[in-house]
Amino acid sequence: MSVRIKLMAVLTMILVAAFITLSLFNYNESRKRVRNEIVNSSLPLTRDNIYSEIQAGLMRPMFVSSLMANDTFLKDWAVDGERDLSKIKRYLSEIQSEYGFFSSFFVSAKTGKYYHSDGILKTLSPEDEHDVWFYDFINSGANHDFDVDTNEAANDILTIFINHRIEGDKGELLGVTGVGLKMDNVSRLLDEFSKKYGKTIYLIDGTGLVQVHHNVGMIEEINIRHMPGHARVATQVLNTSAVPAMYDFEFDGDTVYLTARYIPELEWILIVEQSEEALLDSAKDNFIRTLEIGGLATLVIVLLSLLVVNHFQLRLEKQAETDELTGIANRRAFERRINSAISLNLNILRPFSLVLLDLDGFKEVNDTYGHVEGDLVLKRISEAIMGSIRNSDFCARWGGDEFIILVDGEADQAKAIAERIRLAVEEMSETNSEAGVTISCGVAQYADGDSLDSLTKRADTAMYNSKERGRNTITEG
């Protein structure tokens, strides 16, 4: 056992021993007093205050989405054939900026197009898992709902969407409109409440699934039916009606008090929890506080030392897999990434493809302007590539003026991404020293039995075919 682990163990034992010894004084009386404060004052007051805050914070976007659903302009624009894209962009942009929402949208029931402030994001499809929300909402017959999902229009940021059905004058379905709030903003609000009131605060839906929590990793992943301790009162909590209720349960030697209040507008349940032991800790005298602070300070120093060591270790690991010039991944990092992709494909048949691209006319840049300017061109080209690929794709500098991209998807998706990159580089080539610099791309999709060498060889052959075809083009191999 290392010295630092022994030190941490000793400090922990001292703190625990001090806590146990000093907390015995008047413990029973203190517990009665704390229980009375939690049940009759602290929890109900906090619950009702937060309930009001949530109504003020979430009812406003719900009201706005309702106004959008009844907006004559939006209805007329949809009925008129969705002909002028600039109008809907301006409309959604004004809604977003005027009310300070993270996003605003309209999905057409007729065309399936998803409109947002920057234009058309996509055309929805029942086969796309990201689009299931739309069809579920339409089929539910509900007038509105709240949905926690990733925002494809904003780098898949977790978002609370307030969806509202929009119908024509004859009751025909025109689509779904609404606004979005950043989940981390709502979670941060609950985190602030938790710190302010010293309690755990979160929201669950009617099934018990966590919908809003300061720990974003719990959202739509944890159900109170499966949480230790909570499972004992979960059924009662989920049956909470308009009348707020109070429950308690034992967990890990501690009594936890839980109050629940149903929010009819959201059809969610507000949960506020308070640990009895936590409040008992706050009643300890200055002596135990001094011991705790001393132990905490020692622990922080040890942890900071560990963090510093880990920090520099991570930096070294990152440098080993990063191209020094462009700042993107290097060949070593790419080889490790593609080996993982091959293993994943073998396990769950997840398709992927390669795009290998080479700069046309780069030698002339070096010969004319020098290698310093050539390096700047490579940096700008790498920035253009990174701006054109998706989060699920992976780009690396393959060597010299060659770049390689691992595309999550089939060859058609890889060709589409390659075309975006080609156009971006072509646009850059019209200015400064990039004049005349274009790219030739080779695309190859992984097939059974492929190795890294065979796959890159096919992509490389396709790339050189692009050069033979006149450069600035894309060939599939």
Distance between the termini: 56 Å
Strand order in the sheet with the most strands = 3-2-1-6-5-4
Low-confidence blocks of residues: none
Radius of gyration: 29 Å
The helix/strand order is HHHHEEEHEEEHEEHEEEHHHEHHEEHEHE
Name the average pLDDT: 82
Structural class: alpha+beta
The main sheet comes to: 6 strands, antiparallel
- What overall geometry do the principal axes of the alpha carbons give? globular
**Count of separate DSSP helical elements:** 14
Question: Into which percentage range does the β-strand content fall?
Answer: 15-25%
Number of strands: 16
Helix content: 40-55%
What does this entry look like structurally?
- The protein is an alpha+beta fold.
- It is built from 14 helices and 16 strands.
- It has helices at residues 3-23, 27-69, 72-79, 85-99, 132-140, 183-197, 234-238, 276-282, 286-320, 331-348, 362-369, 371-386, 411-428, 452-468; strands at residues 103-108, 113-116, 119-123, 144-151, 157-167, 173-182, 200-204, 210-212, 245-251, 254-263, 268-275, 353-360, 394-399, 402-407, 438-445, 474-476.
- The strands form three sheets. A six-stranded antiparallel β-sheet has the order 3-2-1-6-5-4, sandwiched between helices. Strands 8-7-11-10-9 form a five-stranded antiparallel β-sheet. It has a five-stranded mixed β-sheet with strand order 13-14-12-15-16, with helices on both faces.
- Helix 1 packs antiparallel against helix 9.
- The protein is globular.
- The two termini are 56 Å apart.
- The mean pLDDT is 82.
